[in-house]
């Protein structure tokens, strides 16, 4: 899958940096308040517990600091819109690392404090164009930080549902996550016959067919940001969302069931 088909959306770097720090802080506050009973609950992500899910969120953020500690690669290899299509291939290694991290660090708040201090210090000085040798291929720091909003927002939602918490979503983090996943759909199914609306953050056109130019599009899908990220990541099935009236779809090309999920 090549990102050359679509010009990448631009993101305000200062806002993305602030959003990553803010959402990680929100999660840290929420995890600090979890009881041992809540931490032992199934996370509904394979065989992970909530404790392991909480450790995985640290790992996703600490990856920024870990890559910044390493020498920069020689050349950029991946654009932002390449990242979502490579996540499934890395799932096994991520799961193993998550279990090990949770087992080695029973004091989750100390683990969060360590990761928070490290990323805060790194982001105070690291330039946007600094290349990181991430497993998906060398990316700029600016692009990689946008991917961290997806990790943080999606897993905040996972935590809330599994542990019964109400950890808030930073608005900029939720917006960036929503937009990246919407653009991923437009990359996977290029075209302009169907308009996908995720108010208030994103509108994209996708799916091959007659191009819409004016008036009400003949094929329209609309949903809210949390339902969208659950659809895009396989937490919710397309038919379930339709049956539960969490998504509306009108037009013969408005069935996105065969395109979802976008990420494993």
Characterize the structure shown.
Helices cover 49% and strands 8% of the residues. It is α+β, with helices and mostly antiparallel strands. The strands form 2 sheets. The protein has a 4-stranded mixed β-sheet with strand order 4-3-5-6. A two-stranded antiparallel ribbon has the order 1-2. Strand 3 and strand 4 form a beta hairpin. The longest helix has 23 residues, at 141-163. The model is unreliable at 1-5 (pLDDT under 50).
Mean pLDDT: 93
Q: Could you tell me the radius of gyration in angstroms? A: 19 Å
The portion of residues forming beta strands comes to 5-15%
What is the H/E order?
HHHHHEEHHEEEHHE
Shape: globular
Give the terminus-to-terminus CA distance: 15 Å
Quaternary structure annotation: single chain
- Outline the biggest β-sheet: 4 strands, mixed
Q: Record the strand order, biggest sheet.
A: 4-3-5-6
Structural class: alpha+beta
- Low-confidence runs of at least 5 consecutive residues: 1-5
Number of strands: 6
Number of helices: 9
**Helix percent band:** 40-55%
